[in-house]
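Inverse folding, one chain.
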């Protein structure tokens, strides 16, 4: 993918609670303003209405927090052996206990990279007790309830880019 526009602004990504814990999440991220990309927001709002109509009939107010661009670098290999593990994001829910993460209801992830550009880096969701791999095709939008456990397995080779945003709404009751 053409990563030039974002590559410079990337910083260590934090957890939903705002802390950076390398044992759970190792990736870099930057945030962009959704309002700055009106065409994208319109597209996402159309997708949101279809997803809430068809799959997850949640009460949603709209998107908040902006868009998170994520970069997962593959393992560093020296003399044929991995000298540093690749980036990953271990099992987590996107709903936090403070700030705007409290009202997250749907997670949207867009696969920005061509799957042939990296190995590993599989986005999986677990709602049944088994890890379920989600589609990887470049440009695919994946949506799931923000409370659902999900992870990104370590990228072993290449670089995986993704984008995440969240639809918010009143608390479940
Ligand atoms: O990179 C991904 O596919 C998932 C990102 C994610 O789970 C998150 O930002 O909370
Ligand atoms: Fe997540």
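Residues assigned per position:
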């Amino acid at each position: 993918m053409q990563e030039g526009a974002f590559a410079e602004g990337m910083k260590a990504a934090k957890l939903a609670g705002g802390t950076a814990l390398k044992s759970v999440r190792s990736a870099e991220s930057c945030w962009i303003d959704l309002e700055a990309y009106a065409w994208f927001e319109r597209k996402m709002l159309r997708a949101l209405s279809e997803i809430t109509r068809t799959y997850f009939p949640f009460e949603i107010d709209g998107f908040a927090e902006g868009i998170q661009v994520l970069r997962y670098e593959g393992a560093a290999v020296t003399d044929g052996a991995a000298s540093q593990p690749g980036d990953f994001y271990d099992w987590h829910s996107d709903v936090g206990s403070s700030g705007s993460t409290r009202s997250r209801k749907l997670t949207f992830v867009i696969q920005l990279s061509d799957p042939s550009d990296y190995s590993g880096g599989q986005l999986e969701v677990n709602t049944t007790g088994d890890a379920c791999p989600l589609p990887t095709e470049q440009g695919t939008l994946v949506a799931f309830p923000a409370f659902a456990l999900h992870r990104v397995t370590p990228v072993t080779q290449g670089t995986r880019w993704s984008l995440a945003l969240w639809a918010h709404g009143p608390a479940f009751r």
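The chain has one domain: 24-168. Residues 24-168 form a domain with the Jelly Rolls fold (CATH 2.60.120.620).
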